[in-house]
Automatic annotation (TrEMBL):
Cell location: Cytoplasm; Nucleus
UniProt GO BP: snRNA 3'-end processing
Source species, domain of life: Eukaryota
Organism of provenance: Brassica campestris
Domain Integrator complex subunit 7 helical bundle: 619-785
Name under which the protein is recorded: Integrator complex subunit 7
Primary subcellular site in the record, as a coarse category: cytoplasm
Length: 1126
């Protein structure tokens, strides 16, 4: 458990005292500056509570005592030290003072240097005042700065006020500037002081002999006069008058800055300021004045004053600024940013006619020359268009008549084309150029969106970009072609830059394909053809290496394009099948050549990308070759694990590609995969072999000697994949699926086999929940990985629904095969609810049909609290799973109607054979479709680093002195705990979230009784395996429900887990910057008999986007002892 600053206060105070007593002045300065950094850290931490005092063994208020001691020692150092020491002390207090900027008035009352915190503030003021009285000009200036930093208590001390007033009229400029700083600080908290200073400032600024630096400092004080409305009004008028009386353009800028900061606090002042400064944009002023005006307007907009500017400024004014040739590009860019903000605000109030006028205004602005040379300007213009589209959709206004989207695409692609020509010139290309290309592709992705009509045009433009890039790399010279990218390049610089460009194009195409809506098969076919042309363009250029050619070829395995051959008919279907086979061979040949050239790292990256897209045969070939070319044991086991995983998925994939099997066999590649897969038992054998390979992959991963935190995700993912495969095999063997001969033989005992379906259905649904749990336990997971896991979770839920088809027939009872305390109606309801929660945004029609299967539809009630990372992306994989849902619904309705039409005495004799046949046909088709889907592997699977998690430290509040670390409670009493939740691995740059709230669920029951005493229990964070904890999913559901809904209502539970027989508590923490939170709680264990018991716990958090995440417990379970009452 890391110590908080309050627990370190005594040590810090002692170290500071020792350093200040040292005769070495350098050591004293270093200690002072180091103390300043510690005070800054301390000021950011929450106020310590009783839990902090208890966990660290502190006396209440001890930290405040040592804080005041350190502050007094710093003041003494200022009083008796030399100039360097004095400056160091001032730097310390100035750095802490800056942290108070932007705090509200209530926050300033309790901040680090407030009057409530600094108990000996009078003594500090007196000692520094003595330095002012006896010191020289520099000492007085430093003392005045200290007074300004201590404004919260120094502003009430009359002698200090008098010193500031006298210093304002001093003959020394340094002293005057320091007094102006102190006066500005005091004006922020004291209105009466501000009134006096205002009068002095008016005369001071008008004084002709005042030094320019001093006049600038005086003007800046006006910006700090906003403590009250009356003072701000008066200061604004005085400052405005002084600005208008100024005759030089150079003196306008400081006044503009101060007036802008003052006006940003009150809307009427912002409107008045805008009326005054807007004419400066058109007047004959020096160039820096309009630039300053634009910066001021930007500042007002950032402070939320856009609504005040809309009513006093003309939007067309900023649009016309974009076409003024005399304005610099920077000024035009600022005008465009202001134009965007004002336009977005006007969109909120515009009707149909006004919206069309704004669109015309944007079209007119798009003709500016700035868009031909600035990527940022183009991105701003695209952002404006997206806001217009969003507003039009909300208000049902048609804006399809405008040609602006097409103009924007042409604008972006023209800029990309010009950059492509520069990129082919070795004298002009650099990484800044590559960065601009990447930014433009990001803008293009934002412009195209999901349902844009210009997506086909974009693909054509991307191909032309590649053509221009490749043509620029060729220079005819007789019968040879010289690569210009090599000439004058140092250390393969051109190769690196070119690779970055191609990676940007490839990344854009990946995101582009992920967001293409595939409802229209003809559009999808056109997209496929254009992607194929892009691929052929890359393959035709000999300057591109095999890795580049391979990853572009693998684009045809994109989820949105996969499955198109299954939907095609006739010659089109044959052509697509041939394409998949031919391009599959291309990727295999490229991978073989990469490895032959000993380019192992590009080969590994290509294998990873192939595995992510579900091109398992290619990844199997790469990993199989690489595993023999590594030396370390960790890398060897890792590659062997990937090889077995690729073999497992490749077994199923090759069932659909017999031509590829023949090609592999003829080239002696992958003998394990290229075995004869024909025969009536081919699918069953493939399932068993895939299961064995998954187990081998998991075993290889377990051989790696590393912390379980490093490979936690990988192991958990493989465990779930293995369990799913095992359950599917159980389903296949139970009903004799996938083989007609076996099915016929099992017709006699079909009734007994059908009774196993509810058990299999419940197991599959549990696996779906475990995939959800996996998805929410890693806060740094990327969206593509989250989408793959969501699809895997949906597949388990769909198979569970298909296997549970029998329990939706009310005239058949399966109560004897269900778990204890579980009803048949409850299982039906949970199956439907689970599917509806996943599909309510994907296919509302299916959700309506599902809801009709149960009497009470509870599925919609919880959909609004669904974690963001369980939202599916629609692709052909999801569509195939939806087709299984439709088949199951049709089967259920058919069996229900047939069952209702049968007489009671005919149920067992007539319906069972048909019932068995229908169920087997349904499940056979469902399993076959499931086997055909190449789910791919999450990108996050290849992030090998410690996972983000939490450690929980706890002590009982009433612990004895003899055993302070033991948690115990007397029988009949509640257990009072002081808790510290410590986040681990959260400070890494890769973590894209900022946690705002922390929660922790504690749970114990009599069944957790353990004979081990607390003193013998050792926490071993490496031994924790979340996939082995059967209670984790239920605990996650309860914690999520509490964190998101803030209600005490218990979530629905399965029959095995009953919250009524245990004791639970949910604790909320406020995290500090280091990811620590402290709190206390009570566990009602008063009914527990004497003995030792484990406490299971799970923590969760809410990020800045409002999304919920689980945090893996990286420390062991807590253990407490119930003692006999004394």
């Amino acid at each position: 458990m890391e110590k908080v600053s309050a627990a370190c206060a005594m040590d810090w105070s002692i170290k500071l005292e020792k350093a200040l007593r040292s005769k070495n002045p350098v050591r004293a300065v270093e200690a002072i500056l180091e103390t300043g950094e510690k005070l800054q850290q301390w000021s950011k931490e929450p106020e310590p509570g009783t839990a902090v005092y208890s966990l660290f063994g502190l006396v209440p208020e001890e930290d405040r005592l040592f804080l005041n001691t350190m502050l007094l020692r710093l003041v003494d150092a200022f009083c008796y030290g030399d100039k360097l020491v004095k400056v160091a002390v001032v730097r310390v207090f100035m750095s802490v003072f800056k942290l108070s900027r932007g705090k509200s008035k209530s926050e300033c009352e309790i901040w680090f240097l407030s009057k409530a915190k600094v108990q000996n503030h009078l003594e500090m003021l007196k000692r520094v005042k003595s330095v002012y009285d006896k010191g020289d000009t520099e000492a007085k200036a430093l003392a005045l700065i200290l007074f300004g930093c201590w404004r919260d208590f120094a502003s009430e001390f009359a002698p200090v006020r008098f010193l500031i007033f006298t210093s304002l009229v001093s003959s020394h400029d340094l002293e005057v500037r320091s007094s102006l700083f102190a006066a500005g600080c005091f004006c922020e908290v004291a209105d009466d002081f501000a009134l006096v200073v205002l009068g002095m400032l008016n005369d001071m600024v008008k004084f002709p002999e005042l030094m320019p630096k001093t006049r600038l400092a005086a003007v800046r004080v006006f910006a700090k006069m906003g403590s009250s409305h009356a003072i701000a009004n008066r200061a604004f008028k005085i400052c405005m008058t002084l600005m208008m009386e100024s005759s030089k353009d150079d003196s306008l800028v400081p006044f503009l800055v101060s007036l802008t900061k003052l006006a940003s606090r009150y809307s009427h002042l912002a409107s008045e300021l805008a009326k005054v400064i807007m004419p400066f944009l058109g007047e004959d002023k020096s160039s820096h004045v309009p630039a300053a005006v634009l910066r001021c307007l930007q500042f007002l907009i950032k402070r939320g004053m856009c609504f005040s500017l809309v009513h006093v400024t003309d939007t067309a004014k900023f649009s016309s600024l974009l076409k003024q040739a005399e304005l610099s590009p920077d000024m035009q860019l600022k005008a465009l940013q202001i134009f965007q903000k004002i336009l977005v605000y006007k969109l909120c109030l515009a009707d149909a006619s006004e919206l069309n006028q704004l669109v015309a205004l944007v079209e007119n602005a798009s003709q500016s020359q700035i868009f031909s040379s600035s990527c940022l300007a183009i991105s701003i213009l695209v952002g404006i268009w997206k806001e217009i589209v969003r507003t039009a959709e909300i208000r049902s206004i048609d804006v399809s008549s405008t040609s602006l989207p097409l103009q924007l695409v042409v604008l972006v692609m023209d800029r990309l084309t010009s950059l492509a020509q520069l990129c082919s010139d070795p004298c002009q290309v650099d990484f800044a150029l590559v960065g601009e290309v990447q930014d433009l592709f990001n803008v293009l992705h934002l412009l195209v969106g999901k349902q844009s009509e210009v997506r086909l045009l974009v693909l054509d433009k991307v191909r032309l970009f590649l053509v221009n890039l490749t043509d620029g790399l060729r220079k005819p010279d007789g019968a040879h072609e010289l690569l210009l990218g090599v000439i004058n390049y140092k250390s393969k610089r051109g190769v690196v830059v070119r690779s970055e460009l191609l990676a940007s194009i490839h990344k854009f195409l990946i995101v582009f394909l992920e967001n293409v809506e595939c409802d229209n098969k003809s559009v999808l076919s056109q997209v496929y053809e254009k992607v194929k042309r892009v691929t052929e363009c890359v393959r035709s250029c000999t300057f591109f290496d095999c890795h580049t050619q391979m990853i572009f070829t693998l684009l045809l395995h994109s989820p949105v394009l996969w499955g198109s051959n299954n939907d095609a008919d006739g010659d089109s279907g044959v052509s697509l099948v041939d394409d998949m086979f031919n391009y599959g061979i291309v990727s295999l040949e490229c991978s073989t050549q990469i490895i032959a050239e000993r380019n192992y790292w590009p080969a590994y990256r290509a294998g990873v990308y192939a595995a992510r897209l579900g091109a398992w045969v290619t990844s199997a070939l790469i990993f199989d070759k690489l595993k023999t070319n590594v030396q370390s044991d960790i890398n060897s086991f890792w590659l062997k694990s990937l090889t077995y995983l690729s073999h497992a998925e490749g077994k199923l994939q090759l069932l659909l590609m017999p031509k590829l099997v023949s090609w592999l066999r003829s080239n002696s590649y992958l003998p394990e995969l290229s075995k004869d897969a024909s025969g009536e038992f081919a699918h069953c054998v493939a399932l068993h072999e895939a299961y064995m390979n998954l187990q081998s992959s998991l075993g290889m991963l377990g051989n790696i000697k590393a912390s379980s935190e490093v490979f936690c995700f990988q192991t958990w993912f493989l465990v779930l994949k293995t369990r799913v495969m095992e359950t599917v095999i159980d389903l296949v063997e139970c009903l004799g699926l996938l083989n007609q001969d076996v099915c016929n033989k099992k017709q006699v005992t079909g009734c007994n086999s059908l009774k196993q379906l509810p058990r299999i259905s419940i197991q599959l649904q549990k696996l779906a929940k475990e995939f959800d749990m996996l998805e929410t336990c890693f806060v740094d997971i990327d969206s593509s990985s989250s989408s793959i896991i969501s699809t895997l979770s949906l597949s388990c839920s769909v198979l569970a629904f298909a296997a549970g088809v029998v329990i939706f027939i009310p005239r058949f009872s399966f109560h004897e095969t269900l778990p204890p305390f579980t009803s048949q109606i409850g299982v039906c309801s949970r199956l439907v609810q689970d599917l509806v929660q996943r599909l309510w945004k994907v296919d509302p029609k299916i959700c309506e049909l599902l809801s009709m299967l149960v009497k009470e539809n509870e599925s919609q009630s919880c959909s609004h609290v669904q974690p963001r990372n369980q939202v599916l992306k629609v692709c052909n994989k999801v569509k195939m799973l939806l087709s299984v849902c439709r088949d199951v619904l049709a089967c259920i309705h058919g069996l229900q109607n047939w069952s209702n039409s049968m007489q009671e005495e005919d149920i067992m004799s007539g319906i069972m054979s048909e019932f068995n046949k229908s169920c087997r046909n349904l499940l056979s088709q469902a399993v076959m479709k499931w086997m055909q889907i190449p789910f791919g592997i999450p990108k996050y699977f290849f992030n090998i680093r410690p996972c983000v998690g939490a450690e929980l430290f706890a002590l009982s509040s009433d612990r004895s002195k003899s055993s302070p670390d033991a948690m115990s409670v007397e029988q009949g009493f509640q257990l009072s705990l002081d808790l510290c939740l410590q986040l681990k691995n959260i400070q890494q740059p890769r973590v894209p979230v900022r946690l705002t709230k922390l929660y922790c669920l504690l749970y114990t029951k009599l069944a957790y009784h353990t004979p081990t005493q607390h003193g013998e229990t050792k926490r071993n964070q490496k031994s924790y395996s979340p996939w082995r904890d059967e209670d984790l999913v239920e605990m996650s559901g309860k914690l999520f429900h509490h964190a998101v809904t803030k209600s005490g209502k218990k979530p629905e539970v399965s029959g095995r887990f009953d919250w009524s027989i245990g004791v639970s508590a949910v604790v909320q923490f406020q995290p500090n910057e280091r990811g620590q939170g402290f709190s206390s709680c009570l566990l009602d264990v008063s009914r527990f008999p004497i003995g030792s018991y484990q406490i299971k716990w799970l923590s969760g958090c809410i990020d800045q986007h409002g999304s919920y995440w689980n945090l893996l417990p990286l420390s062991g379970k807590l253990v407490f002892t119930v003692k006999k009452a004394s």
